[in-house]
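User: tokens in, sequence out, please.
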């Protein structure tokens, strides 16, 4: 494929938004504004066999700061339908379907506001593409666009070629350009990769489209495990209900999987498809940052969080209460649910374990999830709403409210987004939102079954 050097550009800014505060006025806003980050050099390729290697071009020298803790910029972006790569060429349904997918991706992040391209008075829709007139920025500036993405497309049988370019309207320069060649069936993956690169170009950190989310579908004894990707409308089966329900799935480093399974009268812990425990009731598995599997194991008088290593088991909490739902920071600290103080609350321990310190307010708190960045913990308060808090218990913010029951938050691998389950529309579906609660929307609207207990992989996708 040809290599063309694309020029960098600088920043632009647009309106702000923020999450809601926790009731009773006892909460302060999260965090502080990210400073502009240093230039990140890319050297990325797609997984072998997925599509042709992607050629990386120049990155911008100025990055735009983004604050995910409450206030951040949102940019007006326009994505017209893709045009034929060759003058007078033809296009198929992908010319509209793929920019729609790209727009949905970018809108989901909360960083962008989509602008209708039909408002522009652009004369030549192929302007800016290879073998086409130069980009005319004036029509886009007139409608308030900060960025424009232009796409060229050619489909031949089962093969597709995409040329995608990101333009900075304020500086009148091209910011990013990629050429993709592969199979039509992989076009969605190409769009996800480009989405991640657009986010990298503008914020200094890549996006997470293509990352995996595991969840439970079905009811009661028929519960099974499914997997989807951010940027996909489909899901595939991981483990079908057999002799009893499967539940509480989790993903770990290297895309490790684990879940619980009620096999007739036995409680099983399954890791990477292999039963590693059968007997006493086991609950809420999770992986440590080093890939070690832990879960809550019920005994005669207590339920303690236990490390499972080979055939050996070692508890890391103790006491006569109930300790469940472990989740870990990158440095090995553990947050979990415990009844040690009476009602269920969120506690945090050091990497060595031992007695934890409560960080959640009074009232029932469950379902903790530690951000992969280590700076925030999400949890469910009073079995209804999701809150986000600093690991020391300060800076508590409620990010859902007045929209049914919301459960089981899980952070994206970059810590910028949260997936969770909600019944706000009358049935259990998966929703995603920015880490500050903005842009709450259904993850896979076409999926007809129930969707609960999501877990987002900590592994960053290729970009």
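Assistant: Sequence out:
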């Amino acid at each position: 494929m040809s290599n063309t050097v694309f020029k960098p550009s600088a920043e632009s800014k647009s309106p702000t938004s923020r999450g809601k505060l926790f009731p009773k006025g006892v909460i302060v806003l999260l965090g502080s504004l990210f400073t502009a980050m240093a230039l990140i050099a890319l050297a990325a390729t797609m997984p072998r066999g997925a599509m042709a290697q992607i050629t990386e071009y120049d990155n911008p020298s100025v990055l735009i700061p983004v604050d995910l803790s409450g206030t951040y910029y949102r940019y007006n972006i326009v994505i017209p339908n893709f045009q034929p790569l060759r003058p007078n060429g033809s296009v198929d349904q992908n010319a509209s379907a793929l920019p729609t997918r790209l727009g949905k991706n970018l809108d989901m992040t909360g960083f962008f506001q989509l602008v209708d391209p039909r408002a522009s008075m652009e004369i030549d829709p192929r302007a800016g593409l290879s073998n086409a007139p130069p980009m005319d920025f004036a029509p886009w500036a007139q409608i308030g666009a900060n960025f424009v993405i232009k796409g060229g497309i050619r489909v031949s049988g089962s093969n597709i070629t995409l040329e995608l370019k990101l333009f900075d309207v304020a500086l009148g320069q091209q910011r990013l350009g990629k050429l993709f060649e592969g199979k039509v069936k992989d076009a969605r993956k190409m769009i996800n990769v480009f989405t991640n690169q657009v986010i990298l170009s503008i914020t200094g950190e890549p996006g997470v489209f293509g990352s995996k989310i595991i969840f439970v579908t079905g009811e009661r004894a028929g519960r099974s495990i499914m997997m989807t990707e951010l940027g996909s409308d489909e899901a595939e089966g991981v483990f079908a209900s057999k002799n009893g329900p499967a539940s509480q799935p989790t993903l770990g480093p290297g895309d490790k999987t684990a879940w619980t399974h009620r096999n007739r009268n036995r409680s099983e812990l399954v890791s990477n498809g292999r039963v590693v425990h059968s007997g006493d009731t086991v609950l809420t598995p999770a992986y440590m940052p080093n890939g070690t599997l832990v879960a809550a194991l019920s005994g005669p008088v207590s339920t303690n969080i236990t490390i499972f290593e080979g055939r050996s088991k070692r508890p890391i909490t103790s006491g006569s209460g109930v300790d469940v739902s472990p989740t870990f920071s990158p440095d090995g600290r553990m947050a979990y649910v415990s009844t040690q103080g009476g009602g269920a609350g969120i506690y945090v321990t050091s990497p060595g374990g031992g007695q934890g310190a409560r960080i959640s307010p009074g009232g029932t708190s469950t379902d903790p999830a530690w951000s992969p960045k280590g700076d925030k913990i999400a949890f469910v308060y009073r079995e209804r709403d999701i809150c986000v808090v600093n690991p020391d218990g300060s800076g508590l913010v409620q990010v859902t409210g007045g929209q049914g029951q919301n459960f089981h938050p899980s952070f994206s691998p970059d810590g910028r987004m949260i997936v969770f389950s909600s019944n706000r529309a009358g049935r259990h579906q998966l929703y995603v939102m920015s880490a500050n609660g903005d842009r709450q929307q259904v993850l896979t609207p076409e999926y007809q079954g129930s969707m609960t207990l999501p877990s987002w992989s900590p592994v960053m996708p290729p970009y």
